[in-house]
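Below is just one:
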Amino acid sequence: MEPVAVVGGVDTHAATHHAAVVDVTGKLLDTRSFIATQAGYRSLLDWASSFGPLLRVGVEGTGTYGAGLTRHLSQAHIDVVEVPRPDRQLRRAHGKSDPIDAVAAARRALACDGTVVPKKQDGPVEAIRALRTARLGAIKAKTAATNTLRSMIITAPEPLRAQLPATGLPNKLIKACARLRPDPERLNEPTQAAKAALRSIAHRAQHLVDEIKKLDHLIGRLLAVTAPTTLAVFA
């Protein structure tokens, strides 16, 4: 007699994942919590597979807290589907419960109700995504630094404010502030302290500009290999 297939469901969190296994009729077989580490992923897969061949596993947050588990299951050739959050009415009726959420994920995966195939998180596409995330963070930090420079210039002592452009291109403003030379022996004076602060922020912004250029270069190299035709359109 062939073993009966089962379906798993996982409610994911930063530190732990709660898993459930149901049979093909939707009957709950068991639930258990696992640490969100490679060792925990192995234990979760071994435990779920002990009930029978895994037909598929429904995972909440395959692109966030469930990303590591999703990669581990995919590498083990387990079919993974992303399941949405549990129904709000179910939450109101039973409250937040990891076992209930895990069971709901398993039953959604069994019925393929609202499930989607998770994005692959390996290969060049994932590499480009990681670099773009770093680039976006650097751009946001540079924008924040530039905005801080502008606001500080507006309230700076008049002799200093008159030397600096409060408007115009960000790079022009950054360069002007980076050229300031505060007197370290007179930092008790507002003008010298303002110079030191503006120069520090400007140097931070310059470092971020260099970081963005380096990331653009790395992304460009990957795109040249992964999507040369698309890249040529924008060349």
Remarks:
- The first helix runs from residue 38 to 49.
- The radius of gyration is 27 Å.
- Residues 153 and 161 are 6 Å apart (CA to CA).
- The mean pLDDT is 87.
